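Reminder to self: tokens first, then the designed residues, so the page reads top to bottom the way the pipeline ran.
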């Protein structure tokens, strides 16, 4: 592979890193419908974003670096299938802590909790599937992002203009862009030869299913 192409695919993998997806989706949701975040104005919104960044990016990232420095991981990129279990568990714990602190908070939008719980479900499913194949976590994250945006579209598209900033057409085009980005990420993982086609598609499948399963479970157990 030419160096320029390899650099491009590595950049795609970095920009759409799984640890960044929840933060991206939070910012997108706040841009689409800031009115559901009325409990978080000004500095409070900054604190909310920091909480999400700390629990879904910084702490899992630090845990992975520590495992690498202690020799528990041979690569930061988790290339070895057998070494993925501990980073998955660490990330799931941080996500679960954040979800537990948010789920009964009256100011937290339901779809944000759905997204967090979907991340937890996806990680636990990945742990089980990883015993058999090294599914693509990048593709799993992109699949979950796509399903989350579809849920946002279905749940918020009925709102009036005064209750939502983005139009339904804008949300629809955002979904199309996400599909293109998901395809680009899958292509990058294949071109970098870090995953097979079956591992890429398995990642997509787990990611796509997790938010819908999360939505059903949260509706039934927490908001029912």
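Designed residues (224 positions):
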């Amino acid at each position: 592979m030419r160096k320029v192409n390899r650099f491009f695919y590595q950049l795609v993998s970095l920009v759409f890193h799984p640890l960044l997806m929840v933060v991206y989706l939070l910012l997108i949701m706040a841009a689409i419908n800031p009115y559901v975040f009325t409990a978080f104005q000004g500095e409070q919104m900054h604190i909310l974003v920091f909480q999400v960044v700390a629990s879904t990016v910084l702490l899992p990232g630090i845990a992975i670096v520590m495992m690498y420095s202690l020799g528990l991981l041979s690569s930061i990129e988790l290339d070895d299938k057998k070494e993925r279990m501990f980073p998955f568990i660490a990330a799931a714990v941080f996500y679960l802590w954040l979800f537990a602190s948010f789920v009964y908070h009256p100011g937290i939008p339901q779809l944000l909790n759905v997204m967090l719980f979907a991340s937890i479900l996806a990680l636990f499913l990945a742990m089980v599937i990883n015993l058999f194949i090294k599914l693509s976590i990048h593709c799993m994250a992109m699949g979950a992002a796509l399903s989350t945006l579809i849920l946002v579209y279905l749940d918020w598209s009925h709102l009036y203009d005064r209750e939502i900033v983005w139009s339904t057409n804008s949300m629809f085009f955002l979904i199309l862009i996400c599909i293109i980005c998901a395809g680009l990420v899958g292509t990058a993982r294949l071109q970098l030869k870090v995953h097979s086609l079956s591992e890429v598609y398995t990642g997509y499948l787990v990611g796509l299913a997790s938010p819908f399963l999360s939505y059903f479970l949260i509706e039934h157990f927490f908001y029912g």
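DSSP finds eight helices and no strands in the chain.
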